[in-house]
Design goal:
This protein is mostly helical. It folds into two domains: 2-58, Orthogonal Bundle (Arc Repressor Mutant, subunit A); 62-114, Penicillinase repressor fold, CATH 1.10.4040. The protein has helices at residues 2-6, 12-20, 29-41, 62-78, 82-92, 97-114; strands at 45-48, 55-58. It has a two-stranded antiparallel sheet with strand order 1-2. It is elongated, with a radius of gyration of 19 Å.
């Protein structure tokens, strides 16, 4: 989906190149085609058959798609707890120092904006 959100509409070969960029083990065209078909069935992707080759584009906005997937992940693996999800990321070491600092700033700014103001 990231490749489609970045550049659409896109053909299978364009997507394959984008998806495989930087991968140690590239996926095959058939694997990508299977995933695109599944995403189309689920309503995440639209396929345009009007040209010589199929062109794909996202059917779901990026913000909505990411929010939806994250909500499902949070519910299934973390009992609905945002804290447990973030704690897992932090404790696993998967967050860089720069990302951790950005997260601190987001929390600070969110705390300030949600603090009730005195009349």
């Amino acid at each position: 989906m990231d490749a489609l959100w970045r550049s659409h509409p896109a053909g299978v070969m364009e997507l394959l190149e984008a998806v495989n960029a930087g991968r140690a083990e590239p996926i095959t065209r058939n694997t990508l085609q299977t995933q695109l078909t599944r995403l189309e069935t689920k309503g995440w992707v639209r396929r345009d058959d009007s040209g010589r080759a199929h062109a794909y584009e996202p059917a779901v906005l990026e913000t909505h798609g990411r929010t939806s997937v994250l909500a499902g992940l949070k519910q299934r693996f973390f009992g609905g707890s945002s804290l447990a999800l973030v704690r897992c990321l932090v404790e696993s070491g998967d967050i860089s120092a720069d990302e951790l600092e950005e997260l601190r700033q987001l929390v600070r700014s969110r705390s300030k904006s949600s603090t009730p103001r005195k009349p």
